[in-house]
Design brief:
The protein has 187 residues and is mainly beta. The protein has one domain (17-184): Lipid/polyisoprenoid-binding, YceI-like (Lipocalin), CATH 2.40.128. Helices cover 14% and strands 50% of the residues.
Amino acid sequence: MFKKFLICTVALTSLAQAETLTMDTGASKLVYLAKKVSGEHTGEVKLLNGKLNFEKNILKTGEFEIDMTTITNTDIKSGEYHTKFVSHLNNDDFFATDKFKTAKLVIKSAKKEKGSTYKITADLTVKGVTAPVSFLADISKEKAQAKVIFDRTVYGIKYGSGKFFENLGDKMIMDDVQLDVLLIAKK
């Protein structure tokens, strides 16, 4: 009988030290910045779901799914060019959202740095291709903020890249895409 009590106590203690926070998809915000020789474009994508896993109040892992069909543009306010631009982001030149509706980020390790800052190593999946990314994130039990920079060409998004096409001039698009992440935990 004592053995069963001890096992239950150890199990409950372990559960009390482990915590999973689910992200509020409505309050969370993902903003992209993509640069080209002659300017830049900004927009948003929506978080489909996400969670952060803590042990003894230290981040261990996490997983996030992004709804790529929600991609928008915020620097071109409206009109025909806005519609064409968003349509182009959704086609095969960029994210092929008819075939790849979601992107995914899976935190493999989180090393606590100073204060609430973590060095994150994760796998990012875009257009069915998974590759590692690393970045710094400020993470608490209420929210997480990070600037994730990834090379789009690693995921097969080569359109307008100087690595793959010559003589692009001011039509060249930079390979690095910046994603400013603000995740808000559900209360």
